[in-house]
Amino acid sequence: MRRIAVAGTIVVVLCGVVSGRLVADDKKADAKKPAKAAAKADAIPADAKEKLEAAGLKVTTSGISLPEEAELGKTVRELAKQKKAMMTADREVYAALRDLAGIREQIDELKAQYTNLNVELANVTDVASNNRIVGALNATSGQIDQLVQKANQSNDRLKEARKNAADLRDVFVQDVLAMRTKADEITKQWAALGDSREAQDALDKVNQALGAKFVLKPAASFAANAKQLKTMEDAVSSEAIKLDNESNSLWIDVAINGKERQRMIVDSGASTLSISDKMARSLDIKLGPDATPVRVSLADGRVVPASMIKLKSVRVGRFTVEDVECCVLGPDAPAAPPLLGMSFLGQFKFEVDAQQAELKLVKVDSGEPIPKDKPGAKKAAKKKK
Length: 385
Known about the structure:
54% of the residues lie in helices and 23% in strands. It is of the alpha+beta class.
């Protein structure tokens, strides 16, 4: 109790009485809420609730639902996270490609420099110039060796990045397919419940007891999740392509650089797409300065010279892949069959069914845009200026 003097009058203020009463009233109100909810839950007819739960439904005072709907929502949100992870993985692949291409450009420039120095060396007559050029040749050769080693490391990084991206795509595709199956099952469950007279009678009892208007249909959240799932599905495209089984080899039609289709053997054991010198000439493919000399092993055990190049495009079925690494065999292997290897197949989740003679390609678009600028394009533009 506190006394306050106001103009000669003593006013007594009983502190805390009013506020204490309000707190007490609030506590009483809070206590009533669960009691009210419990009473409302008790009002649900036990037999009706039992029948609805036997049909797979969750029954509460706020509504009815299929538990699978909530599970679907969680998985759809997880799929969105997976798609972001795929975008990140694709960025790593593109970064590794740019890095490798940049190193190869430097190697090409140094090789050209090395050739020019050799030409210059052939024309010198004095010792000083000879020693200077020989020194430059040795330095250039050392730089090339270092860059080749760096290119190998960069190539390993690219392979790892591609594998990581492929693994993420595999999981994503499997999860999308599983979620589509689950969503279809939920839709069928609701359709069956809607046709069930027993379920409808049980629900009518619940509505009457609670004064509610619950209906046998999916929740609004299910429609939203189904829409998101459809967006995820749109990122996945697939095609099953028939193969020709000849002499224990599976052949497929392939369009290279937009030209007339060529028959090639599907070979997941080959690291790159491979064509003969004769086929390259028929497709008007010329080995420019960017071609990298290599030696490759053939199926018969021979090791022959070849050149690694990039094809503008490779089309199989309705899928087209740009900038595909290709091995052009030298004239020493005119009879070597053309192979559709991993430089193309590795861009997909794929399956070769030998019994059905079928190649199934599954492509997943992460949403990460493919870089438009080619490595070295800016440098070339500067040189033109």
